Amino acid sequence: MGVLSQLSKAQLPADPGRSMIPLIGDTFNIQSPNGNHVCLVTSPARMSLSNAKNGSWISLFQLEVARALAAQLVIAVRFMHSQGFVHGDLHRGNVLLQLSWKFDRLSTEELYEQYGEPVLEPVNRVDGQQIPLGVPQHGISPIWLGDASENITLPEARILLSDFGKTFSPTQEDQFESHTPLLIRPPEARFEPSNPLSFPSDIWTLACTIFDVIAQKSLFEGSFTNDTDMTCQQIDTLGRLPDEWWGKWEAREEKLIEDGETRSRYPSLEDRFEKSVQQARTRKGMPGIQSSEQEALLSMLRRMLSFRPEDRPSAKQILESELMVKWALPEYAKIKECSGIGAT
């Protein structure tokens, strides 16, 4: 609550990143057998980027939408970092699409007509006994406000960051454990466990999330992967580990064919891009990315995915990259023109 409260009250009205943090409309407490629970009231969102891709047969956003989403992700992270906070759990499941301003103007009758009336689900005990006092007799199924990723239009592609449960301030506390999913966990969490995480850890996960938004599949894959497999994927995709990390990787002799190449032979960053972005879009009749934009994108991602955290650019520097200036930010500017959002 404290982090979200500070971010939502930040006195930076001209910063568009401020509009990508949920506002706290109210708070209240619920006393239960498990203790006192502080509840936050925020504006509803439409769906997460994961919901959009999972609800699609092709798992792709239109190119202009993907560009605008990438720009907003960087803007939102830059805003958080400017306020002294690391998000700590950045992935597409924690990036939400905002609802249209028209949603708040719907009457109850119009809401039910457009989305259907609430569906009540009875609450039952497993043992068949009577529900105790204080427990609702019914639950309400969540309403689905989303759509498949390819159907999201540019004006609809406005994001909100969510889930600040792992957010921390590096200047106020030392955080050594990364809580991001293993597939996008920054490598310093494994190879430099005695060094506290900081803003560059968000940059690594931001790069993975941007690739995930632009591509059909994630940059790194695996349902039942482990730390060793992740290191193999990272080496094949990005290149050799820093010298000081080789000695810390116990499986290197077993997994390496030669210096810088593993027995697993995962695809390189360029090969992953060709298969999951260019070929995937061509197969679905969607335009691919031109060579100049591709070079700018891969260059930006490689810098963000530097193994050493100190070699990664800041969010502010990413916004100044060629990819952002020439392609991503102009698409976001079109959204701002429609919605009246302030300048960057």
From TrEMBL:
UniProt GO molecular function: ATP binding; protein serine/threonine kinase activity
Gene Ontology annotations for the cellular component aspect, listed alphabetically: nucleus
Sorted UniProt keywords: ATP-binding, Kinase, Nucleotide-binding, Serine/threonine-protein kinase, Transferase
One Pfam family, short name: Pkinase
GO biological process: regulation of RNA splicing
InterPro entries per the UniProt record, alphabetical: CLK_kinases (IPR051175), Kinase-like_dom_sf (IPR011009), Prot_kinase_dom (IPR000719)
Domain Protein kinase: 1-324
Highest rank taxon of the organism: Eukaryota
Stated name of the protein: Kinase domain-containing protein
Species the sequence originates in: Aspergillus ellipticus CBS 707.79
Lineage: Eukaryota, Fungi, Dikarya, Ascomycota, Pezizomycotina
